[in-house]
Amino acid sequence: MSSSTNFSSTFTKERWCKGDGFIIEGVLVKHNIHTVFVNCKQPLTETPLPTRFVAIVLEFDNGIKRNWNEHGIELPPKMTRSTAITKGYLNKFDRVQATIVDKVDCDQICAAIANGKPLPENFHDEAIPSLHPKKKNHLEFWADVDKFSHKIFKQGDEIRIKTMGNSIFVESIVKMDQNNMANLAGDSQLGDSFSKNIMKRYDEINTSNQPEEEEDDDEWK
Fold first, then answer.
1. Which residue among 41, 94, 189, 203 is the one 20 to 30 A from 1 at the CA level?
2. pLDDT of residue 80
């Protein structure tokens, strides 16, 4: 199955891929080939987008904003600090786990992509009735055929997508499995950094908040 669009405006990364982007997880609903026929001259100083895509519809599970430093290097997701709270006369500690700060939902993603719509105007208007908010939590993303057509996914697969800026265009896509379930960036290097960051914060709190009195061994049972 395939679809197409005639598009008569600027179709470049500079125009459509602004912002930090998102990391989005969900269940693959369907995919097909979508072609964009660009009918006007494009700015020579800008980077043209591809025109043949794998259009991926997923049922949204969760998402976060991508996090970058001033040098354009992607960082682990922003986290709250884990905290240790004392309670009781023995200064027993309850730990509040670190949590991700920049979570986003479907409404926020649509607001960033197309002012509340799941797709920008004239991208693929026929698809909008079958996407969020009319079909709750269903989103569509476009992956370059030349880069991603070799990837083998099927309906029902759990996938993770990183977008190019706040757009529907895919920078990377992976199938979720035990090797990358906890890796919110979809690559091992960032996943390692993410894990080390959490453990560093955990150790800092452990060191600075040790109880001053000995606890009864029974309190740990």
1. 41
2. 59
